[in-house]
Amino acid sequence: MAKRGRLYIDGKWVSSRKTFDVINPYDGSLVGTVPLATPEMVSKAIQAAYESRETMASLPLHERARILTETSRLIEAKKELFARTIALESGKAWKYAIGEVERAIQTFKFAAAEALTLHGETVPMSAAKGAETRVAFYERFPVGVIGAITPFNFPLNLVAHKVAPAIGAGNPVVLKPASATPFTSILLVETLLKAGLPPRAINLVAGSGSVVGDAIVTDERVAMITFTGSPTVGWAIKEKCGKKKVTLELGSNSGIVVEDDADLEFAIPRCIVGAFAYSGQVCISLQRIYVNEKIYDRFVKEFVKRTKKLKMGNPLDPDTDVNPMINEAEARRVEEWIKEAVAEGAKVLTGGKRKGNVLYPTVITNVTPDMKVCCLEAFAPIVVIDKYKTFEEGVEKLNDSIYGLQAGVFTKDVNKAMYAFRKLEVGGVMINDIPTFRVDQMPYGGVKNSGMGREGLKYAMEEMTEIRLVVFNV
Fold first, then answer.
1. Domains along the sequence of the chain with CATH
2. Burial of 173 by CB count in 10 Å (0-12 exposed, 13-18 middle, 19+ buried)?
3. Active-site residue identified among 70, 249, 335, 463
4. Which tens digits make up the pLDDT trace of 394-450?
5. I want to staple 426 with a disulfide (CB 3.0 to 4.6 A). Which of 11, 316, 324, 404 is the partner?
6. Quick check: pTM over 0.70?
7. Chain segment 163-183, per-residue pLDDT in tens
8. 283 part of the active site
9. Residue 340 annotated in active site
10. What stretches in the chain show pLDDT beneath 50?
11. Which of 70, 89, 271, 283 is catalytic?
12. Among 181, 216, 159, 209, CA closest to 42
């Protein structure tokens, strides 16, 4: 039965005359309808959050941690409900949906731990001549209202990565989830309130980026924007933010270098997961693979063989590996990219076909760096494989990108690993693993067109606080 969603504004669950449909990407069925927020509703949500700043800032650290810990516990108690909601509205395969819920449980636990240790430091004033009689220290204070704008691909855990640190740092939140996946956020807000979060400290509004998103981004009562999504939208948000703080996580066309000493029995299965989990709709999905020419043929043969064994089907089936893309328009876009690459000389070794919004896992070789399948973020189940002669050449090819989120390197040579770490222009280098690897307490973010700022609970809380210094003349 289709659901009827509600928005949460100023401590109340509300509806509106206009609604929008949320569609199951797998079978096109109606998941439910959600109210479309008006500009007036958004303004009311922001005002409620603005007026709750003192309430949130005055919450003791132990109370913030208690709310976050209880939220984690409540999510775990409803793990399958969260996973089913994610699978239905995002089309994510069950194994990855349940994995996302398990990560979100940890994310709130990590946030609780960081909330308990949020502190400042003393400053050695007597290190400066003339300041010998001064004693100083600083503390961290919440910045104010956080505008959180989140994507469809991780409708629980990427929301958690914005909401949890905001709460831990003592900030109220106005949350705008992706229109494709609002029901997971509705379920999360219900959970936060049950955990004891002050009612006006969380507000949930839904609608288009041009209306709802822009209203949040441009409102002077909002102190900071934290956004995950496309570079085009992200950099436009930064232009509109004015004096606000901003954290942007904008995706990538992540790649790896595979040296001839790599453990291929480990590397190839990991690369399969990195390239095709959630149909490649992951910011750090593996899109480019550069393999030492000595092992190139062996790698490609085994990679294609394993790719062909992936099972496509109903996301609710625990055995499903590859799910539909979020909508047919996105599948068509990537299908056109593949056709363009083939017309320019690329070879499709498997996949390349589309059925509705299902794009078959695709492996492409004989590519050039300027092909869209190489130089742009596909956000789809495709991967390109190329060869190199020297390790330095492989690193150079990996660096040849407008993005820089994460990269992977498979090698047993520590000197090569350190060379890659120092030379790769990315936010994180995974040695003997795929760039898709992430645990939720680590610093996470990119450079170049992949964004600015860092997520990860400790680092996000630092972004969401301001340092205030006091100096005593004694």
1. 3-250+450-473 (3.40.605.10), 255-439 (3.40.309.10)
2. buried
3. 249
4. 999 999 999 999 999 999 999 999 999 999 999 999 999 999 999 999 999 999 999
5. 404
6. yes
7. 999 999 999 999 999 999 999
8. yes
9. no
10. none
11. 283
12. 216
